[in-house]
Amino acid sequence: MDYFHYQDGQLFCEQIPVCNLAEKFGTPLWVYSKRTMLHHYEQLVRAFAELKPLICYSVKANSNLGVLRVMAEAGSGFDVVSGGELYRVIKGGGDPAKTVFAGVGKTDEEIRFALDCNVMLFDVESEAELERISVVASEMKKSAPVALRVNPDVDPKTHRYISTGKKESKFGLDLARASRIAREARNLPGVRMIGLHMHIGSQITQTESHSEAAQKGVQFVTELRENGHPIEWFNFGGGFGIHYRKQEAKSAEEFARVIVPEVRKTGCRLALEPGRFIVGNAGILVSRVLYTKVSGERRFLIQDAAMNDLLRPTLYEAFHRIWPVEPQGVLTPPEDFEASIPGTEAWDVVGPVCESGDFFAKDRNLPAMKRGDLLATFSAGAYGMVMSSNYNTRPRAAEVLVDGDSAKLVRRRETLEDLLAPEFISS
After folding, report:
1. How many other β-carbons are positioned within 10 Å of the β-carbon of residue 184?
2. What's the first-to-final CA gap in the chain, in angstroms?
3. What is the pLDDT of residue 318?
4. Per-residue pLDDT at 168
5. Which H/E stretch holds residue 359?
6. Across the beta sheet with 10-13, what order do the strands follow?
7. What pLDDT was estimated at residue 307?
8. Is-contact 195 270, C-beta < 8 A?
9. 0.85 cut: is pTM over it?
10. Catalytic (active-site) positions
11. Is the peptide bond before 333 cis (omega within 30 degrees of 0)?
12. Domains in the chain and their CATH numbers?
């Protein structure tokens, strides 16, 4: 569920017309709905309530300080994958003691920073990393709390770039290797192995994979305890999918139905690391039509947002719903964007970047559009702005957070001076 809706022939974010936001803040423009974020966060809290979960919002999905502040004020913990993200959490009002630090390539500096901040858990991804955390923590005369990340060799049935649960993944450890490391780590100085971590992939729209992973996790918790590790946490990661096309995603309750009974057997505290589930449908990218163009048998709708703003369609061939902010003729978006829609024509929605891969959609049915009209690209709150760049020396867009009938600028639009400021011309 999200709080973007069409009313009186125009798109609203909560109680504010999106066209008003575009007029005030310009385009391209990221627009986030606070109510949508909190709605999805609360769905998870309720669905997994029996286990009193710690929901650790995944910062990599959307790291804007305004978003992090919303999550911190709601009581959320955080999942970070770099020292920079941990720094953001602190600046956004988050609690490091409710933060897990994942990622395959933690540097010594990042490990020290996290130890100084007293993070709740390090999600350990390799034997070499565990040994390095041991060395750094021992030098600091600290004891690092760690959770061993294992790959249960489960197919999450998602895009290959966001599948992380197979044993050949760069993330985590296969069960056999993890078992050996757990035995050898019993007396490793500077670390306390108090958790098990799994994360099998992202944008998962079925529950079978989580069910299989949970069952394997229960068995491995028993093995870890038999090896003398006081396992307190079962960190099940995230990966719960959202609605991009229609209603393809499962609810929080459906995931809880297969995860809770298994975790209950362990007596562990449950941690979850959702990102997309919370913020994905809480954001849209608003753009303005620059030109229309016909070339051969294809029609192009050229708008001022590009692949440097939203990379997902180019990187993953990802599908995003797209519809005019103030549609003419066909006033409300269809339930099926891939079906034939009366009163529409097929367009390739593209941007100004000098790449053939700069597109948001191909052969997309849209009502009549002309120069100056506004487009909304939906479900863009996750992995949108965080993956944006300055390719073609394009300043990154502004970000706005809507709360009811008020809107706050949470990141100003970059200027050309911002882009050139770190650079020097040698004499």
Report:
1. 13
2. 57
3. 93
4. 58
5. strand 359-366
6. 4-7, 10-13, 16-17
7. 98
8. no
9. yes
10. 354
11. no
12. 4-32+280-420 (2.40.37.10), 34-279 (3.20.20.10)
